[in-house]
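Section 3.1: Structural characterization of target chains.
Under the original work plan, the team committed to producing a structural model for every single-chain target entering the pipeline before any wet-lab resources were allocated. The record below documents one such target. The sequence was received from the expression subgroup and is listed exactly as submitted; it comprises 261 residues.
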Amino acid sequence: MNISSISLVLLIPFLGTVLGSAMVFLMKNKMNVKVEKLLLGFAAGVMIAASIWSLIIPSLDMAKEQGDISWLPAAIGFLLGIIFLLVLDSLVPHLHMKSDKPEGLKAKIKNSTMLVLAVTLHNIPEGMTVGVTLAGALIGNTGITIAGAIALAIGIAMQNFPEGAIISMPLKSEGVSKTKAFLYGTLSGIVEPIGAIITILLTSAVVPILPYLLSFAAGAMIYVVVEELIPESQAGEHSNIGTIGVAIGFTIMMILDVALG
């Protein structure tokens, strides 16, 4: 796999964010609540499936091949991923999607900045996830295939599509111009390819702890699902639509990962 192919895989998730953010140009009025809940649920389903088939299972398999207790690295890494996001979530001031949103016209700029910061924070482990799986596939003998890494990248891109839309479209509803809303959504995804590249460089030097890194990424992704996506998709009315989104997203990502991996 040459450098151009690797670069393409790394950019797939970012492309999902860009396309999702671009949906703001098709928007006429405020974002439909039902559509938003469906997108949130879909994103949660994709991330849950990706955490299991693309991260936890390869972590268990690789630890077993290395002669370790198969479940130990997965358990430790997963908990560290949760703790990492929990601490980062506490230290960095940001909004949880829509909750605690400042009210009034004077708060719009602050609200927009904090919203982008929140999603950007969540994109860090997603970029790391792609980097870890791609590095594992390139190293070989890790239980991860190039096809599996590509499937994960596509799955993250599918998750990023509604995420980009969830940033740009509500901002448009609050009075931000379509161009600025699109740029805010796009900028939130830049950390993903950067995080992936850094992770690849680090992973190549620390192959023995790759099972921990895989499960760490899974823990970080599950944290985002439990802390942000599911609560927002279930808030208020039409919670069943969010549940349907979870089912669709989980099924599609599972099929992608199993079929291509």
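The chain is about 80% helix and 0% strand.
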